[in-house]
Amino acid sequence: MAPPCPNLEGAPMRNNQPITDQEHHLDPKCPLVSLTDLKGVILHANQSFVEISGYRQDELLGQPHNLIRHPDMPAEAFEDMWRTLKADLPWRGIVKNRCKNGDFYWVEAYVTPLIEDGRKVGYMSVRTRPTPRQITEANALYQAVNHRSIRFPATRYRRDTSVTARLALMALLPALCFGAALCLGDHGRWLAAGAGVLAAPALGLWTWLGIVPPMKRSGEALLKIASGDLRFELDTRASSEFFRLLIGIQSMKVGLRAVFADILSIAGHVESQSHALNDQVDMANQRIHLGADSVRTMAAAIEQLTESVSEISLATQSSAGQATLTAEKVSQGLGQIVDTQTASLGVVSRMDSAQQLITELKSEVASIQNLAEIIKEIADQTNLLALNAAIEAARAGETGRGFAVVADEVRKLAERTSSSTVEITATVERIGTCTANTLSAMAMAAGEVQISHSLMNESRETYDAIQRSADGIQSSSRNIAAMLQQQEHSSSEVAGKIEEISQLVEQNSSSVESIHKAARQLGHTAQQLHAMTSRFEHSL
């Protein structure tokens, strides 16, 4: 069981709840070990204690040992333990402890004081697995004590008469016999001498029994411990001089059992961990080799990327130059379109002026046609007057012959005038038709010029868009070229970093190999440690 707790000095016993009927069993080869200070505060708990208690290491350290007390344990058991430990003697008993979740487990506890520089500094508790019979007897005892049916049996160490007292009696025997002989008469002297002769061997045998058997038991115990037997029972009954020796050997045996159990457990744990570490190192080594291959592949890819970026950068710079030339050509074409638009606007203006002149000409032709009509009418009237004059001249006879000749000339002139008027009218009509056709053609031409102007406006807008796009392409190409140059620089830096990573991977591979060797050496050391302590394994 555990070392004494603060409540052993009069404080109320701790009642840990809840509890269950679920029992746990100790591993016979894994004793529970704990160290406490003089107040019972836990300073150390081995892994076996941590595992079966259900508490974490940090939950146990710094806590009173009655943290694991089971309510079925009578307070008298702890009082007996405390009295025994107060006397600087070890205590041994069967104890029922509580797990964190309320389950329980039985232990055979051996609690002994810890002495440093002749001063008691704390207590060590070593708990092992009890036999079923011990558990049954202890359970019945504790139930009876809790029901006040019986008293808890106190721990008592039997001691024989000290060797010092025996030697003192042997030293006093001759003096006693001599004094008795002096005090008695002749007959009494012989009686005193006979009593001395008989008492001397008996006293010598008694003294021998007080020295030799305890020494023999001590020697046998030490030989058993040296041979690896730590489970033997040691009879500690002896004279006071040898009692402390036997108690010390008993405590040493229990402590060594706990130490070797922890060493074996730790050695096995180290061995298994070294194997696991070897496996992990092997996996890490494989990953490092895979990583090295990946780094080399990445380096090659980065190198190809750098070359591609360089080629793209050159192509982009060339595209930027072509975009600049395109922008210049577009600018020239745009200027030519503007000039053409200006010229077409001049043509439209001149055609408008020509249309106005032709319209005026058409008006003048119409006026001429009107005049020709008037002339025709005058010619017709003149011709009619000439006919009338000829008729009158014929009536006049010879007198009017001269007048008739004049009238005939006038008639002829009127006919020629009428004929000329018809020709003028036809000519004027042809001029009008030509003028109308010219106006129509000029109107159509003006419309075509307007359409051409509109198309040139659209072309100008298109050229403007092309120029903006060309400018954008030029700017984007420059930006892309700059970014590609930066990318090329970054790729070069990345390639350098990857080279550094590759070197680090190689260094890590070397370090992992060193760790692998160290892990193998650790496993070998653990195996050697296990082999050195394995002869104690059967006695745990």
From TrEMBL:
Transmembrane spans: 163-184, 190-209
Keyword Calcium: no
SUPFAM superfamilies with a match to the protein in the record: Methyl-accepting chemotaxis protein (MCP) signaling domain, PYP-like sensor domain (PAS domain)
Metal-binding as UniProt keyword: no
Sequence ranges assigned to domain PAS in this UniProt record: 33-88
Region entry Disordered, spans: 1-25
Subcellular location: Cell inner membrane
Xref: InterPro entries: MCPsignal_dom (IPR004089), PAC (IPR001610), PAS (IPR000014), PAS-like_dom_sf (IPR035965), PAS_fold_3 (IPR013655)
SMART domains: MA, PAC, PAS
Entry keyword set: Cell inner membrane, Cell membrane, Chemotaxis, Membrane, Methylation, Transducer, Transmembrane, Transmembrane helix
Bilayer topology term: Multi-pass membrane protein
Pfam family, one: MCPsignal
Family note: Belongs to the methyl-accepting chemotaxis (MCP) protein family.
The protein, known as: Methyl-accepting chemotaxis protein
Biological source species: Chromobacterium paludis
